Amino acid sequence: MIGEREVLTRAQLMAGGLSRRGLVRALNEGVIVRARRDQYVSAAAPSAVVQAVRIGGRVTCLSLLQLLGVFVFANDVVHVHIPRGASRLRSPESVAKPLGARGRRRARLHWWPLSATPPAHSACTGIVDALAHAVRCQPPRQAIATLDSALNKGLIGFADVEDLFALLPRKYRVLRSLIDGRAQAGTETLMRLMVRGLGHEAVPQVHFARFGFVDLVVDGWLVVECDSRAFHSDWAQQVKDRARDLELAKLGYVTLRFTAAQILHQPDDVLAALRGMLGAGRRKPPPRN
């Protein structure tokens, strides 16, 4: 009836074959939700969609990217694009309440014009506009990690990256050369940028014939792995990780592992560890096979 990221008016529902009685039944049975006057969404819609429509706009920026599985460092508010000239903005909690101070603490409003008008039924902005909003909403390193993630997931291509930066103020163009879509996770991008900040070269997703890819190879000899709980918490996977480290050591590589939590929440400790390891002396890169 209504997609999870769609918003329809009563007239659109009727045009789709729903009768007045059917509309009342769908509301009473909790199949659809009246988010605001003459704006209906699916009961299965994510809370960000319901809140954005209720406020009076579309989901964008970090909220939309979270729905798409793109890396976002942290976000606990709904990001909403509001058309210029919009009025009667409502609280994300209740359409009966205006968007007061409490509601604004739970929402981030984006007012700048969109580069492309979304379909009338869409409750979300386009991906390029959402990413442009996200660049302006995050610190530079986190913004780069978000763009890397969108590239890696195939949600955008490098041509879209050029379009995206054309939407942004000139000061953001310095970030363009730092984007690399090979990273499989946002933590890998953050680690790559840490290494680069220390003056060293980090190559993402390097392939070894014996066992596949490693997250980063720094200066040709140091392998850095960024372990997440989702893929490295069970003992069988940890045994597999140790076996990979053993094979790398046989080839002359040193392996340094960090958890995602360390990279995200203890960056100073991670940087100190990198300085200590890399400062121990540059090594001749071993052959990769």
List the helices and strands and how they pair.
Blueprint: H1 10-15, H2 20-28, E1 32-36, E2 39-42, H3 47-55, E3 58-59, H4 61-67, E4 78-81, H5 101-105, E5 107-110, H6 127-137, H7 140-152, H8 158-167, H9 186-197, E6 202-208, E7 212-218, E8 222-227, H10 229-232, H11 235-251, E9 254-259, H12 260-265, H13 267-278
Parallel strand pairs: 4-5, 8-9
Antiparallel strand pairs: 1-2, 3-4, 6-7, 7-8
Helix pairs in contact: 4-6, 6-7, 6-8, 7-9
Walkthrough of the structure:
- The protein is of the alpha/beta class and 289 residues long.
- Among the domains are: 60-88 and 111-178, no CATH class; 186-278, Endonuclease, Chain A (3-Layer(aba) Sandwich), CATH 3.40.960.
- Helices cover 42% and strands 16% of the residues.
- It has helices at residues 10-15, 20-28, 47-55, 61-67, 101-105, 127-137, 140-152, 158-167, 186-197, 229-232, 235-251, 260-265, 267-278; strands spanning 32-36, 39-42, 58-59, 78-81, 107-110, 202-208, 212-218, 222-227, 254-259.
- The protein has a four-stranded mixed β-sheet, with helices on both faces. Strands 3-4-5 form a three-stranded mixed β-sheet. A two-stranded antiparallel ribbon has the order 1-2.
- InterPro entries: DUF559.
